[in-house]
Specification:
Distance between the termini: 44 Å
Shape: elongated
Radius of gyration: 21 Å
Largest sheet: 3 strands, antiparallel
Length: 258
């Protein structure tokens, strides 16, 4: 990143304008698009409590964290533009991240009935994980990170929709660690939550999934082992598998409809 005077005191918009001017772009359209993209990045860094602004705080790690979170919120075209703007400022290539929002809209999601059929062909601990993943819209690794909200609160540096649990009554609130390390609230029907609490470890267990360590509170499936179990059970029961992520997509489609 080019050397310049600190701009942490500036607004997110001013930081973005300053960064774009330093790039010396020839296209006004690109300047406008990059300013919009970098304004979002600067605002994210501030919300994270990183007060150095784009000048000091934007690096590969914070950029990838931002893009991972954005992948749930925007389509591929916008996500790619964000990445290109950040690359221009950093002067280095970043990993291409796929828009999860777009994948949800395009994917072949399971129906609730199909999920229950698959769960019926799994072991007790994996079946419960499947039911919870569908009920709360969890990723495979997030199942390993479940904890009651009373024991671990969600991160406060990000705004959450007030209607995110609209239509969900009689639920227990838990938190999970998601993409980019974001700790967010999830809702689980109380009947399922009671089954989950019955499988609570006396002390949390250190587990590893794809080389990453997690402190697991409950004896349920999660991560790659659960994902593999789901795919095999889906093949046995349905004759096809769209992968465990299809469970999260079914949840997301239902919530978007709501």
């Amino acid at each position: 990143m080019a050397k310049s005077s600190p701009v942490s005191y500036r607004s997110a918009e001013s930081q973005a304008q300053h960064a774009v001017r330093e790039l010396g772009l020839s296209s006004q359209g690109t300047e406008r698009n990059y300013e919009q993209a970098l304004t979002g990045v600067a605002g994210f860094l501030k919300d994270m409590g990183l007060q150095g602004g784009l000048h000091r705080e934007l690096n590969t790690a914070t950029a990838e964290m931002y893009l991972q979170i954005r992948s749930e919120e925007v389509g591929q075209k916008t996500l790619d533009l964000d990445r290109q703007a950040i690359q221009a400022v950093l002067g280095e290539k970043l990993e291409v991240i796929k828009s999860e929002r777009e994948q949800i809209l395009e994917s072949r999601a399971y129906t609730s009935e199909q999920v229950q059929m698959v769960a019926g062909a799994q072991s007790e601990r994996n079946a419960l994980a499947t039911q919870i993943a569908e009920n709360a819209g969890l990723r495979a690794h997030e199942l390993l990170t479940l904890r009651p909200v009373e024991e671990r609160a969600a991160d406060t540096h990000r705004e959450y929709r007030d209607d995110r649990f609209a239509g969900r009554d009689n639920v227990a609130i838990y938190t999970v660690e998601g993409k980019g390390g974001l700790c967010r609230e999830v809702a689980i029907d109380k009947e399922l939550a009671a089954k989950l609490e019955d499988r609570r470890f006396e002390t949390s267990q250190q587990v590893y999934d794809r080389g990453i360590g997690y402190q697991q509170t409950y004896d349920i499936g999660g991560g790659k082992n659960w994902s593999d179990s789901f795919s095999k059970a889906s093949d046995r029961e349905l004759g096809w598998s769209n992968g465990a992520h299809g469970v999260r997509h079914e949840y997301a489609q239902e919530r978007m409809n709501t």
